[in-house]
Amino acid sequence: MSSLHSTTYPNSLAIADKGCLTIGSIDEIQQKLHIRKVPLYESPRRISYQENTQTFGVTSTRTEIRDPYSGKSVVQRPSASTTASSITYSSGETNRGVLTGTSKDIQGGAIGDEISVSSFLVIDQHTFEVTHAHQLLDCECGLSLASAQFTNDNNTYYCLGTAMVHPEESEPKEGRILVFQLLEGKLTQVSSKDVKGAVYSICEFNGKLLVSINNSVAVYEWTAEKELRQDCCYHNTVVALYLKTKGDFILVGDLMRSLTLLSYKPSEGRLEEIAHDFSPNWMTACEIIDDDTFIGAENSYNLFTCQKDSAATSDEDRHHLQTIGAYHLADFVNVFRHGSLVMHHAAEQSTPINSSILFGTVLGSIGLIAGIQKDMFEFLIQVQKKLSTIVKSVGKIDHAFWRSFHNDRKTEPSRGSIDGDLIECCLDLNRTQLKEVVSGLQIDEDGMKKDCTVDDLIKIIEELSRIH
Length: 468
What we know:
Blueprint: E1 2-4, E2 12-16, E3 21-24, H1 28-32, E4 43-50, E5 55-66, E6 73-75, E7 86-89, H2 104-108, E8 114-124, E9 130-135, E10 140-149, E11 156-164, E12 175-183, E13 186-195, E14 199-205, E15 208-213, E16 216-222, E17 228-234, E18 240-246, E19 249-254, E20 259-265, E21 270-276, E22 283-288, E23 293-298, E24 302-308, H3 315-318, E25 321-328, E26 333-338, E27 353-361, E28 366-372, H4 374-390, H5 399-402, E29 405-406, E30 411-412, H6 420-424, H7 431-438, E31 442-445, E32 448-451, H8 454-465
Parallel strand pairs: 7-9
Antiparallel strand pairs: 1-2, 2-3, 4-5, 5-6, 5-8, 8-9, 10-11, 11-12, 12-13, 14-15, 15-16, 16-17, 18-19, 19-20, 20-21, 22-23, 23-24, 24-25, 26-27, 27-28, 29-30, 31-32
Helix pairs in contact: 4-7
C-alpha cells in the first residue's frame, strides 16, 4: 500500500493485493471512525453494555456435531465460548466432551447431527477478552439481553431471556429468564424464572423488568428474596417481538400487527392500550422518537413513522396511530438505538437536531436518522428534487420511484423523509452543477429570506454530514 497524489487521483491510496490494483480515497466520514474487529469465531446474537462493571454481555451461538458413539458433542474449532477464562454451565447441563475430532469422519462432519450451542459471554470493555462464558441447556437459545437495576436493590444485573427450541414445535412453549450478577470478575446466576414461551425481548422498566413472551407483554417485580414475580400482563398481540420504553409508555412491535402503544398503570397493576397502528405491517424493529412519534421497520425493507393524535376529540381517533412518514430503505433493519457515532456540540451547530437514532441492518450497514426543523426540511426537499434530476443513479432509476414505500399490499410515495445519501452528493458536484441546484432556492438568515448561494448550500450540507 502506498499514498498516491496526482492530478487525476488527489489524496488517494494505491493498494495492491494478489489479484488486482485498487486506487481509492478515504472519505471524511470514514476518517472519523475507529473500527476494531473482535473475532469470536461464533455467531453473536445480542449485546448489552454494563457501565459499573465496564463489560459487555453477549449472547452467542456456535455449531457442534454430536458424536453418535459417545453422545457427546464435538467442538469443531476454538471459539469465544470454548476458550473463555472461566466456563460455567446451566443447571442440569453436563460438561460437554471437548472432543477434537479424532475420527476423520467426525472431523469432516459426515457422522452425527449438527447442533446449536448457545452461551452468554462476558467481555471486558478495555481488552475485549472473554472473561466468562455461561453455556445454556441443550436446545436452549438466548434471545434477549439487558443490563438492569431494580427498585430497592443497588446491584446491577444482566438479564437474559431464552427459549427452548424443539424442531417439532412451531413455536417455543418454554423459556427462562436468567438473572446474572458480575461481582469481582466472577459471574453468578442469581435467579431463574421459567416462563411459558420464548422471551423475545427484555428491558429495564422503572425499576422492574419488562419482557415479551410469545403473544404477551409482562412486567416483573424484583422481590427481596431475589426472585422475579409477575405484576401484570397484556395479551392482545400475535407475537410481541420488540419492546421500547419511555417513562410509563411501552411501544410494542408485533410480528404482523405493526405498532401498539401501551401505558403502565402501577397503582392499578395493569397495562392499558393507548393507541394502535391498524396497518398490518410485518415488523423487524421499532423505536420511540418522542412522546407522540414512533418509527418502525418492516420486512419489505421500508421505514414508516407513526404519530399519536393526543388532541383528537374522539376516543376512536386518539386510539389510532396515524402514519405520517414512509420511506423505502432497500435494506432489512433489525435494530434501532438512540445515539450517534460522533459528539454533538450544540453551540457550534447552526442546524439543530431534534433526535438522533442509529439503525443496523442485516447487510451490515449502520445508518442514522436525524430529526430536523420544519424550515430546514422544506429547504432540503427542494434540494432533493433538483438533485434527483442532476445526479443520475445506477440504472437511471427514478429517485422518487426508488424511495417510494412498497410492499405486497400497496405502493405510495415517500413522505416525511429526506434521502441523506442523495443530499450528500452535493459535495461531489462542481460549482456549475451546484449553481443549477441553488437556482431559485431561498434560505432563512436572521429572520429574513435571501437567495441561497453555492457557498451557503455547501456549508449546510457539510454541517449535516458532521451529524454522522
